[in-house]
Write a structure and sequence with these properties.
By secondary structure, this protein is α+β, with helices and mostly antiparallel strands. 41% of the residues lie in helices and 15% in strands. It has three helices and three strands, in the order βααββα. A hairpin with a 2-residue loop joins β2 (46-48) and β3. α1 (20-27) crosses α2 (31-40). The longest helix is centred in the middle third of the chain and has 10 residues, at 31-40.
Length: 68
């Protein structure tokens, strides 16, 4: 897709929240690990309608808590 004069280029913006699958991909982890952390309460998530999301800042804090 090419941009025309009528389509302004949008700046790349970091999302506020991602799905557990996308969070796992971004963190370099398996889906099972992320879903287990959500189930145990170690990784906070929110549900809007049928959609489960993890805030990026929460995912980053969870990862930092596991640093050695």
């Amino acid at each position: 897709m090419t941009l025309t004069a009528h389509e302004p280029k949008r700046p790349t913006q970091r999302p506020f929240a991602v799905s557990p699958d996308e969070g796992a991909r971004l963190a370099g982890l398996g889906r099972t690990t992320v879903y287990a952390a959500i189930r145990s309460g170690a990784l906070a998530s929110l549900k809007i309608g049928r959609r489960r999301l993890i805030r990026i800042d929460v995912l980053e804090a969870w990862l930092q808590a596991h640093e050695r």
